[in-house]
Predict the structure of Protein kinase domain-containing protein.
Amino acid sequence: MDSFVQAHSGIPPTILQDDLPLDMDMDMDSNNTTTTLSFENGIHPAMMDSNPPSTLTETLSSFSSDRSSFLGSTSNNLLSTFSSTTSTPASRRGSMQFTKPVEVRETLDASVTENADGLRQLKQYVLKREIGRGAFGKVHHAVDENTNISYAVKEFSKAKLRKKDKANLFKLGPRGRGRGRRGPEAPSPLSSESSPLDLIRGEVAILKKLHHPNIVKLYEVLDVSSDDSMYMVFEMCEKGVLMPVSLTEKCEDVFSDEDCRDVFQQMVLGIEYLHEHDIIHRDIKPDNLLRSEDETVKIVDFGVSEMFNKKGDDMTKKSAGSPAFMAPELCRHDHGEVSGRATDIWSMGVTLYCIRYGLLPYISESILEMHKVIREEEYTIPPENDQRFVDLIKKLLEKDPLKRITIEQLRNDPWLTNDGKEPLISKEENTANAVTEVTEEDLRGAIQKIGGLVTVFKAIAKFKRGIKSPVSRRSSTSTTAGRDESATEQEKMQDADESDATISQAMTSSDSTSEMSKDEVKEMSTSPLSSTLESSLVHVSLEETEDKSESTKNQADAEPTSHPPKQDINETANEGINEKPKDAANEETKVAANEETKDAVNEESEDAVSDETKDDKSAEEEAEPEGYQICDMKTGMCYWVPSKKVKTTPPVSTAEEPMEDVEEKVSETIQPSAPTIQVASVEHATAPSSTDASHQDDASSVGQSSSSGASSPTQSLAPGPRLVGKLSRERLAMFEKSA
Ligand SMILES: Nc1ncnc2c1ncn2[C@@H]1O[C@H](COP(=O)(O)OP(=O)(O)OP(=O)(O)O)[C@@H](O)[C@H]1O
């Protein structure tokens, strides 16, 4: 360590002399151990197969956990220095590939086998060597045996994730759990129905959205149910981390001015893309900047990142990141809401300082002391020829977040653009590759375009899924009874959040939209539902026709020879408004497939399977007749209105009738069942009341009054609505807006 570093850092000699032994198999949970790696010939194992690192200097890091904690988690990286024989920045920027978004696959039942060479194999991925370690497990260099393409496979210990998740539950509340902050659509990783993948759901959700050359690409997520491991398959960044950063030692292989600019420009583009899409990384540091074979910088590790649902919102109370890279406004225990964008910019400043000078701008012995130094002291800068660089560092490491330089301003910085000679690609070009998931905001927009009834219907179908929340499923055997009245407000909100996520995901696939459109546009245009949508009530058909309503079953039993097959009746009975349940069911399936989330699919199929496998008795007990969910926009109360439509099925001859005839007859019979009338009556009769019970009474009384004299077909279609739940505040606000 040179004298400048020593003077600059003020690090006690005892720490500076701390050379620790290398040990590949250390317990990473231990607070007092060091996890380090050594490799044959000092060569990054990932490079040994086909890409010998001729220009690469591999170094090892050996920080004590005390020291590395300043730099973030149990970082134990393979550290490589920047090669001076790189392609020019201009040529690299010219070749920036804005590739098409890749779907992230999720596999729940993966298994690890051993191949003929004695290597572990995970699906098609042969795990060749360990190339790094993180807080939750190892990172392997893997090769796809079919394509021979290299990947970095990150292995997570589920036990460690769960432990962390539980700790976060206390610390951050349900929305802050798991790796990656997911915003309000977060599923509950600890719920009994959660999949192990939920432990990393936040990180996966964020990574799924991102398609940018400077952000590491996630390809696949796999859970091995038989053991403690879970895997994320990333694009391989062959050249490893940007630079080893130590609290104690200066890295001698610092970047040249030109390389520094190139790396920083790429960081700016990556961060601009993230921020533009309302994602705050929160842990920017050289350790989390890897380089690919062509030296494209890749931002990695979204484990503490935060995704904001509201455009432009970035205010957060949470502290995360590595102390040495934390912005001063985060360096106090009682900090209120801070701008996440500004904190990322600060970390970029620390990172730029590091890669230029090989050491940190602020160093101290303890985290608390480090916080104080960052908050109160000024950094010193080594002798620097380029005043533009000094100025930029000053603007990045501005203690007042309001005065700190913004990404927008960075674009025109004299050092960054080399006085305009090396400009960045335009913001439009850089951020054009839109995120793939549709947000709640997109959904609002879609609903507002009321002309797009298909979209509206899809949203409603998805909303239905939200109503059939895990809470209600857990607590009730009824498929329609909906929500557990005793569920806490928090759970209710969370359930609504889940439905938000589902809606968003359903809206993703344009394929499914076009598939929906033929039938649904037709039925929506003829259906009374369309008119009711324009009122302030939102209808959600709850029952899937394949639940084989009690009345259908009864009738089938009573007249075994006089009916077309039950499923035909169900199909044909679905003309007009009552067709919704079937299509909603179909839509469920489509959406489940689209969601890619196996757990969601399983959830659906579990429902379906359990429905199918119920014996007749329990099916009769549990299945409720078809009906509709009606939600009062003013109160948020949701009622279920059974339709009993199938009882009105007309007599059918013993001979098999052509489908068209059956369809005609059934649809004729059920045409009067348009529930618009009931909706209106419910709306008026169930005027907002202070308690659910009174709502229920009101609702029931409406039902009773309107259904008296059950002999009339119309009346038989108007049984009593009953309270089934309440919309979450967020959901209500959303529908109110769209209405
Ligand atoms: N995509 C990748 N390509 C190449 N090497 C990688 C890749 N991802 C990670 N590595 C290597 O593995 C090391 C550990 O990465 P990892 O993200 O697990 O650790 P970490 O930064 O401590 O994060 P976490 O807190 O998520 O565990 C990295 O420093 C790097 O050397």
Summary: The longest strand covers residues 125-133. The chain has a mean pLDDT of 60. The radius of gyration is 30 Å.
